[in-house]
C-alpha cells in the first residue's frame, strides 16, 4: 500500500486544528495529495416563513464560503498539494463519495460526538464512516502531531488485523511496531474441563500450548510484515487488554482490524474497536480490509 492521497474530514464546529495538523504531517511525510473536507449538516429544513434575504440557498452559500475560507487557512501551512471540498449534506455520505472519487489511500478523522438521539443509537459520523471500511482510517486523539514512534498492532489472526498491521507499517515506517495478541479461555470452559476429569496440570499445559501457538503465529506474521518489532501474548479479555494499552501512554498509535462488510457490523461498530476508540489517549488506526498472507 502506497499512500498517494489522504482525505482529512474536518468538523470545523469542533475546532479540529489538531486533526488538520496530523493530516498535513502525514501528507508531508508521504508526499501525498491532501484533501481537506467539511460537510455542513446544520441547515434547517425549508421554512416558508424565512424572510426573503434568508432563503436556504443564500444561507448555504454563506456557510460554504466561510467553511472554504477556514479550510484554506489551514491548508496554507501545508507543504504539499492540498485541495478543499465543502458540501451541504450528510457528512458520512460526502466523505464516502470523496474516498471513492479520489481513490483515497487514507482517511484522517476525529472521534466524533453524537449530536442527537439517533446518533447515540446508530453512531456518530466517525462511526458510520469507519463501518463502511473503504480505506484505512486514522482517528486522531493525540494533542501532538509528532511523528508516530511507537505503534501497537492488535493481532487476532484475522485477515483484517493483518491488514491493519500492514497499514501501520506503511503509515509509520520508522516507528517501532509491537504485535500483540490477547487470548482468553472462558472460565466456564475451564471449569467444565476440570469437571470432566482434566487435571490442573493438564489445564496449565493447555494454556501454555495456546500461548506458545500464538507466539509462533506472531513470529510468522512479523516475518511477513518485514518488521523487527516486539511480539507479546497477553492472557485475558482482548478488549480490556487493548483499552489498558491504549490508555497507558506507551503507544502513539494503536492499529485494529475491523469487519465492516456484514449486516451486523453495518449497524454496530465492533465492541472492541468502540471501547478502544472511546478510551484511547493515542491515535487509533482502523482497517476494514482483508489481506491474505499467502
TrEMBL record:
| UniProt xrefs under CDD domains | USP-like
Q: Could you tell me which residue ranges the UspA domain spans?
A: 3-141, 148-286
Per the UniProt record, one Pfam family is Usp
- Give me the segments passing through the membrane: none
The entry assigns this protein to a family as follows: Belongs to the universal stress protein A family.
Q: Which PANTHER family match?
A: STRESS RESPONSE PROTEIN NHAX, UNIVERSAL STRESS PROTEIN UP12
Protein name as it appears in the record:
Universal stress protein
Organism encoding this protein? Falsigemmobacter intermedius
